Amino acid sequence: MLYLFLGQDPLSKDLQFKRIKEEFLPKRLEQFNLDILYARELTLKNLQEKLLNLPLQSPKRIVVIKNTEDLKEEIEDFIFEWSKKPSQATILLLDFSEQAQKEGFIKRIHSYAKVFRFKEKVPLNTFNLIRQIELRRPDYALKVLDQILKDGERPERILGGLRYALEKSSPVSIQAKRKVKLLLNCDIEIKTGKLKAPFALEKLVVGLCVLG
């Protein structure tokens, strides 16, 4: 079975991948039936070995190739031939971030695959981060935080946005005071250099998710 993830929306991709895992992989055996590979370092021999492995007490195995746009041509040719008669015991999931340079390859395998299309890029900001914190989803909140930092948002602006949201929405309560204390501690850790800004913000985000 061949699946294609096309697009640049990491949060939506993660949610869809989670659904696929829940459908096919028993949680307790996930580590034995899931391989995450990266196209740039991937060799043909390594991929062939992974696809030959059989599921362990599971309906399927899942082999994921990240950044598929970096695949070598010989691996593309192999996947094309494999996709015509794929193993029913294995899902090969190709995750494309930049698909333009691989349009020819995608067209070759498209008719043999189950295709999931995602937005080309979802601009993330502190509002998205606040929403994930409100939902008490530290895993996704940390992904949003990582992305907005990579996009160039300054730590002090992120901290200011979180402070504004807290002041606007939280009533005066013991829990609200605890949140304010977390924000102040984060600000001090960054300004004094006790922690690097990304780590201090990660610590803050997890703490806010716990408090809800």
Write the layout of secondary structure elements.
Blueprint: E1 2-6, H1 10-24, H2 30-33, E2 34-38, H3 44-52, E3 61-66, H4 73-84, E4 90-96, H5 103-110, E5 114-117, H6 126-134, H7 138-150, H8 155-169, H9 174-192, H10 197-211
Helix pairs in contact: 6-7, 7-10, 8-9, 9-10
Which descriptors apply to this entry?
five-stranded parallel sheet, 2 domains, 212 residues, alpha/beta, 56% helix, elongated, Rossmann fold, Zinc Finger, Delta Prime, domain 3, 5 strands
Task: Describe the structure in your own words.
The protein has 212 residues and is of the alpha/beta class. The chain folds into 2 domains: 116 residues, Rossmann fold (3-Layer(aba) Sandwich); 86 residues, Zinc Finger, Delta Prime, domain 3. It has 10 helices and 5 strands. Strands 2-3-4-1-5 form a 5-stranded parallel sheet, with helices on both faces. α4 links the parallel β3 and β4. It is elongated and about 60 Å long. The model has no long low-confidence stretch (mean pLDDT 90).
